[in-house]
Write a structure and sequence with these properties.
The chain has about 425 residues and is α/β, with parallel strands linked by helices. Helix content is about 45%, strand content about 15%.
Length: about 425
């Protein structure tokens, strides 16, 4: 996999899950390095505040190093100043928020897209819509929001239901207004949770510098438009949050923040996304399209990864006669071939690997102790820098040995 971030490309081997694990490990190492740089910067700034004079070449170079380090630390911690994404629940205390009864819809003479759906949305449900392009996912969301009227049936909303939505076309933004004006209708301050904050300061926490906030929204990139809509949605408490492709164009950090925010959202969520990994992490229920079904959509309790098995179970229950025949028919079990355990060579290798892992753990502990010394980063030649490099190299060796040990253990237990 290739990751494009902040103008640079990083390469990762393996699947998306492998990428997340490797990226998490890399971010941990980066955080450790940033922490050490911050500690060193504090000491150097204290030296400057004591009245350091740039009288000698060495002093001038040290002062310049401090200023460069200050810029490096500021760049490293810039992303941490971004506002955490948090969606506040509405004040409606009812568990039943919305009912769909016998709803059908088609565009003119086009095909039926809903097919007489009955659905009840309860508080706390996080529903992912699953289906191919053109099957009617966005149309269903428009019916829920009231932007379209069913050709048959009705959608009944709780009278005190509060809604927030982000559409696929990002039509909630006015391209003729600036980024700042789109956020809060020219309001100077906004209320976030239980506090008030200046509007332009609030926007900086979503990656919009003050000097960029006067741009027209029509000039914003896809990622900027998405972040602006997320910032706007945070300002409005909601019982029902409707998100159509919210993950499009988002950077990895914002995507992870969005996932955490949706998991903590106390209301009900309707979600459409092509990011299956994201849906599997967030959804508690799945509304899956079935072109042969009546209605066209079927609700399952579980995330999209479970739909195939749940649909098979449901079909089995709908055909009791066939299921009963399958149960009573004698089962012929093929003889199981017993997998061999570890060979003597592999058993010796297990002992070697475990001893090597213990030695590497001790080496990592020694590196950690070295970097904990307040003087470990006192200068460019101080031992803390080499200790960090040694720790990273040792950790990589340990990862390789742990993987080998796991493979041997799996074979032993098979």
């Amino acid at each position: 996999m290739l990751e494009l971030e902040e103008g640079s490309i990083a390469s990762y081997e393996g699947s998306y899950s492998d990428y997340l694990l490797e990226k998490s490990d890399r971010e941990f190492r980066e955080a450790r390095l940033t922490e050490h740089m911050q500690n060193r910067l504090r000491r150097e700034m204290a030296w400057l505040r004591r009245g350091a004079k740039a009288r000698t070449r060495k002093s001038k170079l040290r002062i310049q190093d401090v200023l460069d380090m200050k810029d490096d630390v500021a760049e490293r911690t810039r992303e941490e100043t971004r506002q955490a994404i948090t969606f506040k629940g509405g004040e409606n205390r009812s568990d039943a928020l919305l009912h769909v009864k016998g709803v059908s819809f088609s565009y003119g003479d086009g095909p039926e897209l809903i097919g007489g759906l009955d659905l009840s949305l309860q508080r706390g449900m996080r529903v992912a819509l699953l289906g191919p392009n053109g099957c009617g996912k966005s149309t269903f969301l428009k019916l829920i929001l009231g932007d379209l009227t069913p050709t048959q049936g009705e959608v009944t909303r709780h009278p005190k239901l509060s809604l927030s939505a982000i559409s696929q076309g990002r039509g909630e933004l006015d391209g003729n207004l600036s980024i700042l004006e789109n956020l809060a209708d020219r309001a100077a301050i906004v209320k976030v949770q239980d506090a008030t904050i200046l509007t332009h300061v609030y926007l900086t926490r979503f990656g919009f510098p003050v000097e960029q906030q006067g741009r027209l929204a029509s000039t914003a990139s896809g990622g900027e438009r998405n972040r602006l809509l997320l910032a706007k949605a945070m300002l409005h408490p909601s019982d029902l949050l409707v998100l159509d492709e919210p993950t499009n164009d988002l950077d990895i950090a914002t995507l992870q923040n969005l996932e955490e925010a949706l998991l903590e959202f106390p209301g009900t969520l309707l979600l459409v996304s092509h990011d299956r990994f994201f849906l599997d992490q967030v959804a508690t229920h799945t509304l899956a399209f079935n072109p042969q079904g009546t209605p066209r959509w079927e609700l399952y309790e579980g995330n999209p990864a479970t739909v195939k098995s749940l649909r098979s179970d449901r079909l089995a229950l709908e055909m009791p006669a066939k299921a009963e025949i399958a149960k009573t028919a004698p089962r012929i079990e093929s003889p199981k071939l017993k997998k061999p355990g570890l060979t003597q060579k592999e058993q010796r290798r297990v002992v070697e690997v475990e001893a090597a892992m213990a030695a590497l753990h001790a080496r990592i502990a020694a590196c950690d102790a070295a970097t904990a010394d307040p003087l470990a980063f006192a200068s460019a030649e101080a031992p803390g820098h080499q200790a960090l490099r040694d720790r990273d190299a040792t950790k990589q060796q340990l990862d390789e040995l742990e993987m080998e040990w796991l493979e041997l253990e799996e074979k032993r237990q098979a």
